[in-house]
Structures are given as structure tokens and as C-alpha cells.
Amino acid sequence: MKELRWAAQELRYANLGDARRNKRLVKIVEDLAAQPNESIPTACGNWAATKATYNLWKSPRIKPDDIRLSHQISTVERSQEHSVVLAIQDTTDLNFTHHPSKKGMGPISSKPMVTGLKVHSVLAVSTLGVPLGVLHQQVWARNPQEVGKRHTRRQRQTADKESQCWLSASVATELALPEDIEVVTIADREADIYDLFAMTRQRRSHLLIRGTHNRRVDHQAKYLHASMSKRQLRDCHHYCTS
């Protein structure tokens, strides 16, 4: 049997309701991956392929989750080869300010004229640092009416704030991975949220969060920063970057 191309292998679980759509999705992924810095028309190579790409994206029969699902299933399969998986969470912005024809965008900064989408992802990585794929992804547009209400965040419940994305992603990670895999959720200081620490987790699920708040802890030093300064260094890793 002829070996499947990498995109066909990765998206073999895709079900867009029609075999032709599944085949087109594979072709789009191959084209864009081959030239990630190019425009859609350049990456597609000709007008027919470009039009087919845009038609797939704007089709009301296809939802973003339909496209992501196949990759997520493949990610879980790769994760099953590991006893421990690092689930790295982070949020990024897609800036569409210079594409005024785009609909459904929202503010992505304190300036209302800067618009786009927010994307929160969970990247599964092995303990050796090998990326396994995206386990979970949430995309949303901010409500323009909410701009300027940052000062009220302490009066609102976590479930009513964007901070909920960290908790939701943690739950989604546990649900996605088999129970025999130990999972370590890793996140930057934005995830230093009390509700994330307090929420019920499976015994195999752990958190590694960069602290930003000097929280009270169960230690003779009483507070996080002081307690960490009194702990013995367990290990040290050096990385060379260029």
C-alpha cells in the first residue's frame, strides 16, 4: 500500500460530509504548510485552487471544530506513546485591523480600532520537548461593549471573564487524554488564578504555573515569594539560543 502523504495521514479522521471536501482540506494544508509566509493565492498556485480554498472556508456546512477534530484525534494517538505529556497553554491574538472587510472581529487591545480574534490553545509536548499537536483550541471575538471594563474584573466571577479559558482548557485536556497518561499543565503568569488551583482535578493532573501573585502558602515563610527563596535548588538546565 502506498504510504499516505503526511497531511493525508494527519487528517485521515476528517469528516466534512463529503469525500471531495476531505480531499480538498488535505490539499489546502499541504499548500499552506509548504509556503507558510506566502499569501493564499501564491501558496495555492493557481486561481482554481485559490477559489476552492476560499469556498471551503466560507462553506456554512463546515465548522472550525470539524477541521480541528481530526488533528486532535491524531494528537491523542501520538500522546498515547508517552506516560507523561506536557500540556502547554497560551493565548495569542490574530490581528485583522488592516482587513476591514472581515466581519465578526473584536478589539484585541485597549484601543478599539485594533481588531481581530483571540485564540487560546493547548499544545501537547513530550518530556523531551517534541511537539505532539494541539489538544484543544478556543477562538473568540471580544465584545466591543466590554472594552474599558478591566477595573471591574475583581467584582466578576471567573466564569464571566476571559480567565475562564485557562480552566476550560485544563478540563478539556483531562477529557482528551487517556486516564493512564500523566498530564502537566504549563502556563505563564496569566494563569495564576485561584480558581484554577482550587478546581477539582484528576490525580494524574498537575499544574506548573509561573507565579505573579505573592499568595499565602502552607509554609513557615507564609508567603509564596519568601517560601521559594528558602527552597533548595533541585536542578538547573542551560539552553543556548541564537
From TrEMBL:
Q: Which InterPro entries match?
A: RNaseH-like_sf, TN5-like_N_sf, Tn5_transposase, Tn5p-like, Transposase_Tn5-like_N
Superkingdom, natural source: Bacteria
Q: Which is a Pfam family this sequence falls into? A: Tnp_DNA_bind
Gene3D superfamilies the UniProt entry points to: Tn5 transposase, domain 1 (1.10.246.40), Transposase Inhibitor Protein From Tn5, Chain A, domain 1 (3.90.350.10)
Q: Which residues form the Transposase Tn5-like N-terminal domain?
A: 5-62
Enumerate the PANTHER family for this protein.
TRANSPOSASE (PTHR37319), TRANSPOSASE TN5 DIMERISATION DOMAIN-CONTAINING PROTEIN (PTHR37319:SF1)
- What is this protein's record name? Transposase Tn5-like N-terminal domain-containing protein
In which organism is this protein found? Coleofasciculus chthonoplastes PCC 7420
